[in-house]
Amino acid sequence: MSREIVSRLERAEDPVAVWLAYADHVPDWGRQISNAVEAEVSRTALGVRNPANAPDDWERQQMEQMSFLLDAGIDPETLDVAVIRQEGEDKVLRWMRPILMAEDCLPCHGEAIEPRVKLLLGQEYPLDEAKGYAAGQLGGAYSVRQVLEVGGKPAPPWRDIPAPVVALADARSRDDAPLVRPAPAPAPETP
To answer: Can you tell me the distance from the alpha carbon of 83 to that of 70, in angstroms, rounded to the nearest whole number?
Structure first.
């Protein structure tokens, strides 16, 4: 994921095109990885761009602790968390690893977001909480959840997560592509 974004930025691609490529492909990469390892693999954060990626209580607690430890100067490479815990009837393996904001993340997550990207993000994610970061800050975490047992019995076989039905940016028509221009001014009121 990071390599793809970095290579596009190094080629000086338009920031809107970079964001569209990222938004089009990242959800499916997560799905592909989940299916390959037969576990739920995701990214989450304390402040998410997409509310569907909001952390559960365990993830939130781990990221709050990671943030505290990072602020205390602890090496981020030591902050992986892995536990086996009971969640209702499920015995699950939970693992998290912090994601730190790098310079390459800041065109879409920093303080000075290019105006067209900011407009696009506002249109696509009106509840966006994933901006205003500086390099080195905790941006979120990779999270893995694998069911080991259900009710004391082995977990059922993994069922592949189906591919999302989304028109990719290159395949969108003008009418269904995200808008990257301001909304039209309201029509004048008639007396």
So the answer is: 20
Nearest to 39 by CA among 87, 84, 89, 95: 95
pTM: 0.81
Domain 2-151: give its CATH code: 3.30.450
Q: Tens digit of pLDDT for each residue in 45-90?
A: 999 998 989 999 999 999 999 999 999 999 999 999 999 999 999 9
CB burial of 101-116 (b: ≥16 within 10 Å; e: otherwise) equals beebbbbbbbeebeee
Q: Which tens digit of pLDDT belongs to each residue from 81-109?
A: 999 999 999 999 999 999 999 988 888 89
Radius of gyration of the chain (CA): 19
Domain positions in the chain: 2-151
